[in-house]
Structure formats: structure tokens, C-alpha cells
Amino acid sequence: MAELHTLTAHELADQMRRGAVSAREIAEATLARIAAVDERVKSFVTVTPEAALAQAREVDERRARGEALPPLAGIPIALKDNLCTRGVRTTCASKILDNWEPPYDATVVARLRAQHAVFVGKTNLDEFAMGSSTENSGLFVTHNPWDLSRVPGGSSGGSAAAVAAREATLALGSDTGGSIRQPAAFCGVVGLKPTYGRVSRYGLVAFASSLDQIGPMARDVTDAALLLQAISGSDPSDATSAPVAVPDYMQALRPEVKGLKLGVPREFFAQGVAPEVEAAVRAAVDRLVALGAEAEEVSMPHIDYAFPAFYIIAPAEASSNLARYDGVRYGLREPASDPTTMMERTRDAGFGAEVKQRIMLGTFTLSAGYYDAYYLKALKVRTLVKQDFDRAFERFDLLVAPVTPTVAFAIGERANDPLQMKLADVCTVPVNLAGGPAIAVPCGFHAGLPIGLQLMAKPFAEETLLRAAYTYEQATDWHLRAPAL
């Protein structure tokens, strides 16, 4: 049998059902893997071995009593460190929350506890999820397991790297403008951004509330479907979660795309996409066509405006959301003789440069005299972008594009070029503005680095996404490759 840390969630679940392995053995193997490689990869902000072993022991005891257990029972999962976990440090990779322990679980965390999943730790991210490389973490930089001199992407870089490096079987990330899909592409794993409202945001530390969405990161599409099933559904604690029935995503996993209509938006290939990335994505489209799908080029004329609109809307919402970090209620407090000075010193010491920049940009665009010129106009552009998607989905079942314009870039390469850094998300941002679901799956390599294929669907059509992604995955072997660490 292969080493336990290399198996997928569905393979591990099968082994446990047959009695070939225990949850404790799986947890121990995963923790050993973290101990062996994380000093180089640096995926984790916090590792929780005692809690993981206790959860695994409970799974084994329940199984010994003959209890029927959920699909993710005993499966090692890593949680992005902007998801609240009761009694476990939740930092958002920021000094302002360095030692904060939430008194409650995020809804997705509570749902995974109910599944008896095993939490192995909290993963690194760009501070407050603001970034595209995990270099903006206020704690340390995470490395890409395929090449330790390169970034893993962001903001969910720690989760993507943990899954790719086999330090966790599954992980949760959050996606505001591509923060699940982009690092998934850079690290050669599967990342799915669900429809806005499909998964509760309660307990996700907010960046931009109208854009944020929690989703799965996994080694294959089957595992992504299992994790999405566990976390989906409406939640009375989140007014933006949709009261929409959750289908059985496992039923969608059939290798069948005959008659599926794929739109290939030309604007997504005109955003500085490298030739090798375009070639790999177009080859993936050709493979889907050979498997029975139909593909046709389409124009989405307002997509070019999605990127600037996003960088007005997201900082504006961040400015509002991050006002709560004032040194008064929780987190860092810098001493001072009066409250105003204390607040200024706390925010200056606690926030990193990228977060400060976005707060200032957002505050400016919301200020008197500029609200109409910037924020209100960006909202109107957002509507135009959504209408482009709506029109496209009248003709097509899915849209196909690159996830990122390039493969993973070197650590430090874009540190002094904020525009180039942000352009890493240029192909992923439009879907967040439109609110629909999208998935990233591996579709090739260039110079030893993974390339990602992005599939986009109309709202609440995750089943169609999963079916097409599964069909492509089963016809290729990109997802079977692993970095040599």
C-alpha cells in the first residue's frame, strides 16, 4: 500500500471502511509528513497534533462501536488561518491578531467537526487574505512545493502548498478575487470557488463581504466534491447564504461531457497570458472536445473592466471591515495616553504595508466627493460584468479560460511591482464580481511548474463544473503528479 500521506480522501475512507488502516495511523502519518517537510515549505501557521490525534481516536472508537460514519471521518484537513476555530489561534497572518483565539467555530469548521474530520492545523495566507503570493503574510513566506524558490500563489497559499506537499489530504481556502483557484493552479491541485451564498461565511474573517467565499482545495475532483458537500448549505448565522437545496455532488462525478457547450472567451486570453499557459489551456479544451463537448469562441466585452472595478470594490469593503481592529476589543493593543493615539499606534504596528495600502485606497474611494466617481461607478461596472456572464450562459454550459497568466513566479520577483503582482489574479477576478462558481484543475506543466485550467459556470451549477472537471481529470494524468520534496 502507498504511504498514507500520499492517498486521497476517498482512498483513505475506503481503507478505513475495510479496516486496513485506522484514523490514528492516518493522523500520525500526516503529522510526520508535516514534521518532515514543513520547515522548507512553511505551509502552517499553527499545527495542532494533540487535537488531531484526539479527533482521530474518537473516529476509531466510533468505528469500533459499529457506528455509521460520514465520508470525511478521520480525514486530515488543514484550515486557512482566517477561519475561526474555537480555542485555536486564528491570526489571519497578521500581527494585529497574533495571539487571538476565537470563542466560536466558523460554520464550515463546525460542519467538518460534525463530519468527524481531523484538523491538523491552520495554514498561512497573505495578511487578511490581501495578496496573490503569500509574500504579504505578516508572519513568514510560504514556498511552492514544486520549486521552493517560487511563490505558492495567494492568498490561500498555505492551504494549496499543504495539499500539494502531501501535508494535508484536504484544505479549506477562501476566494475573494481568485485566492483559491490561483494558488491551486500554481501548486498543481484542484481548487473550487463555490457560488456566492452556497457556503456560509459565518466565522470567516471578512476581507470584502460581497466577494468572499470559502471553498475546497484537494488533490483531485472527487475529493473537492466530498469537501464541498460537507460545507455547503444555508446557514441562519449568515444572511447572505442562499436557501438553495444542496445536490449530491458525488452523483455529478461521471466521465460524460457529450453535448456540453463550452464558451472560450477571447478576452481571458488577451490579459498578458503566457504562450505556454495558453497552449496548455487550449489543449485542454481540445481534449474536452475530443471527449464529446462542443467549444466556440465568445466575446465578453466588459471583462477588461472587471480588474479595475474589483480593485475599487474590494478595498472599499476592506476599509469598512477592518475598522474593527482598533486595539479596544481584541487583538493587539499598543499602549498610549489617550484612545486616539492608542488606536493609531495599534493599527500602524499591527497591519502590514499591503493591508494599509488597501485600507487607504478603500477609504479614499468611499470618501465624500469621490464615492460617486469611484465606488458607485465600480458597482455599475460590476453589473455590466455580470450581464456578460449571464449572456454567455444563455448559450454555453461552461466558460473555459486560464486560471493565471503565468506559472508561479519567483519569491521577490514582483515585490516592487504591485501592478504585476495583482495581475496574477486578472483571469480569476471576473467570476467573483459575477458571483458564480469556478474550478481550477491541473492541465499541464511548463519548466516543471504546474498550469491550471479554469472552468466557470452559472450560479449554483457546481454539478456541471464538477462533471466537466472530473471528465477532463480522468482522461489525463496531471493530477497524479507530485512534487519531489
Concise description?
This protein is an alpha/beta fold and 485 residues long. It contains 15 helices and 11 strands.
Keywords:
11-stranded mixed β-sheet; Amidase signature (AS) enzymes; 485 residues; single chain; alpha/beta
**Strand element count:** 11
- What is the highest CATH level, the class? Alpha Beta
Tally of separate helices: 15
Assign a percent range to the helix content.
25-40%
> SSE string, helix = H, strand = E?
HHEHEHEHEHEEHEHEHHHHEHHEEH
Q: How would you state the average pLDDT, rounded?
A: 96
- Name the structural class: alpha/beta
Description:
The structure is a single chain. With 485 residues, this protein is α/β, with parallel strands linked by helices. The protein has a single domain (4-263, 396-480), classed as Amidase signature (AS) enzymes (Alpha-Beta Complex), CATH 3.90.1300.10. Helices cover 38% and strands 13% of the residues. It has helices at residues 9-17, 23-41, 49-64, 107-114, 157-164, 181-187, 221-231, 275-290, 306-321, 339-350, 353-365, 371-395, 418-422, 429-434, 462-474, and strands spanning 44-47, 76-80, 118-123, 170-174, 190-193, 214-218, 261-265, 294-298, 398-402, 438-446, 449-456. Strands 1-3-2-4-6-5-10-11-9-7-8 form an eleven-stranded mixed sheet, with helices on both faces. A hairpin with a 2-residue loop joins strand 10 (438-446) and strand 11 (449-456). Helix 2 (23-41) runs antiparallel to helix 3 (49-64), helix 9 packs across helix 11 (353-365) and helix 9 crosses helix 12 (371-395). It is globular. The relative contact order is 0.14. The mean pLDDT is 96.
